Amino acid sequence: MEYAVELRGVTKIFPGENLKANDNVSLHLEKGEILCLAGENGAGKTTLMKILYGLLPPTSGEILVKGRKVEIGSPLDANRLGIGMVHQHFMLFPEFTVAENVVMGMEPVKGFFAYDFARAKKLTEEVISAHHFSIDPDVQVKSLTVGQMQQVEIVRMLYRRAEVLILDEPTAVLTEQETAAIFKTFRALADSGRSLILITHKLNEIKQISHRVAIMRKGELAAVRNTGDIDEYEISRLMVGRGVELTADRGPRRPPKKNPVLSFRGVTVKRHGQERPLLNNITFTVNAGEIVGFAGVAGNGLGVLEAVLGGFLPLSAGRIFHKDRDITGFDSVKLRREGLAYVPGDRLRVGSASGATVIENIIINQRRRFSRGGFLDRRAMDQFAGKLLGEYNISGGSRRRMDSLSGGSIQKVILAREIVQYLDYIVFSEPAWGLDIASSRYMYDQMALLRESGAAVILISSNLDEILANADRIMVMYRGTIAAEILRDSFGSAGTGKEMGGDIKEEIGAFMLGIKTQARQPQYDGEENRG
Questions:
Q1: Integer Cα distance of 67 and 455 in angstroms
Q2: Which of 59, 153, 205, 326 has its CA 20 to 30 A from that of 170?
Q3: Contact at 8 Å (CB) between 150 and 169?
Q4: Which spans in 286-357 are helix H?
Q5: Mean pLDDT throughout 132-160?
């Protein structure tokens, strides 16, 4: 049988790291099929797809496209063979229009050298119209929602006549409504004869969208199953090698006593020359012993809120209090001394020094503790780091570089460092982004333990499942404001709204997209912050 793509005995070894990322993997993709590729972090699925897309060469094995053996040395080769890839982090230029992004690298010209803007728009419109996308080719990408940016990436690949589409975590930052819309697009593409490979950790989405699921573990192909013949628990068992409890039982949730730890009062952040504030009159309080979740679509204030909480962005107005102490204007160093613990969304650029070792990252905020007469006590550092690595089950040793670890291990190193220095409040931003089931569950368990110990926990996430599973209160962000505040009493473990009615995820998604609004208490009208 002739397949759209076939991998035969693909092996990838990274000699410098003595790591076999892929071990004799054989896998095929049929025409018109949606195949989900699942596995823990470090299982080898992304490496395998990078080989198929020409970003990495295989150590051994072969690739066939439509029954013909091919060599794929670059993404350009992959495009010529009809293979496209949409990465988890979009490869778009925000200042350019949709059409300019779509045709980039394959720009139409008139005469010999002149860029043909009109034809670029026309060609883009033809692809958009043929596949019923909802984007305007003349609009700048920076003004689009995340779901629309996802569409632009797919249109780029279709413009290049891709017959096989690889999508890395395609719904990671989408709302329920946007996910439903993109799944409709995926099904239409498959119905038209295109083949799709989705890399995803979301078990419910594997069941919802795919025809088959291929499960990788430790570089090997553990199983390939028809999706209708396997349930979520069996998928997780094959991924991890053991049974994993998929839902977290956090026990009864009693409302915390009013013991304010962190308070925002009328916090506003404006950018020079921009009329609409990035944050607009934000007021909330986080008490000891509760998890307050902030949900929203990218571009609606979550990243700005994280930057303010981390001390990286000054306020235009409003005040911030840690208990009774005014900490407005404190930078990240002062906030650390005040008690901030912080697990950032960007693990490599903000959360760690990627070129430094694990041990250097762990003691970075506690260098004085290990200083003896102006010199670092290496033995004490080793003992301290070794203890944390053992407690948090971090493999690889303290002397490895951070950027050589898997995403889950990097997150655990940061978590271990932050919890050991935590005083009374901690910020988590996208804590399970790209993590596998076991690593995500571990992160959530640690979050729950902090809550039970009396910590004030702030959870910032675009993943509604994550918010619903962990938060005691949910603040929904839209266009820099808190569009709704939802208490845990309003939703149950099954995810069905009680007071609000209907599916709570759809309700929150409607607030996130500005479709619905909720009357809230009047916001604090603080004086402008001149400091």
A1: 58
A2: 59
A3: no
A4: 302-309, 332-338
A5: 87
Measure the CA–CA gap between 105 and 99, rounded to whole angstroms: 12
Phi/psi of residue 110, nearest 5 degrees: -120, 140
3-state secondary structure 150-163: HHHHHHHHHHCCCC
Q: What is the mean pLDDT of residues 40-65?
A: 90
Residue 80's nearest CA partner among 44, 47, 54, 117 is: 54
pLDDT at 526: 43
As a residue count, the chain comes to 531
Which of 400, 421, 442 marks a domain boundary? 421
pLDDT in tens, 294-332: 998 767 888 899 999 999 999 999 999 999 999 999 998
Mean pLDDT is lowest, of 55-59, 89-93, 234-238, 526-530, for 526-530
Dig out the tokens for 151 from the structure: 């569409």
Residue predicted with more confidence, 112 or 446:
446
Q: What is the DSSP letter of 374?
A: T
Domain count within the chain: 3
Structure tokens at 56: 């990495």
Q: Answer whether residue 118 shows pLDDT above 80.
A: yes
- The Cα 382–Cα 441 span in angstroms is 28
Contact by Cβ (8 Å): 53, 83:
yes
Of the three residues 378, 406, 421, the one that is the final residue of a domain is: 421
Side by side, the strands of the sheet bearing 19-29 are 19-29, 5-14, 60-65, 68-70
| Beta-carbon count within 10 A of 108 CB | 15
Query: Beta strand 19-29 with 5-14: parallel, antiparallel or unpaired?
Result: antiparallel
**In this structure, are strands 114-115 and 19-29 parallel, antiparallel, or unpaired?**
unpaired
Helix (H, G, I), strand (E, B) or coil at 54: coil
Q: Please name which of 131, 45, 42, 150 lies closest in space to residue 87, comparing C-alpha atoms.
A: 150
Least confident of 268-272, 344-348, 371-375, 525-529: 525-529
The dihedral through the CA atoms of 377, 379, 385, 388 has a sign that is negative
**pTM of this prediction?**
0.63
- 36 and 168 share one domain: yes
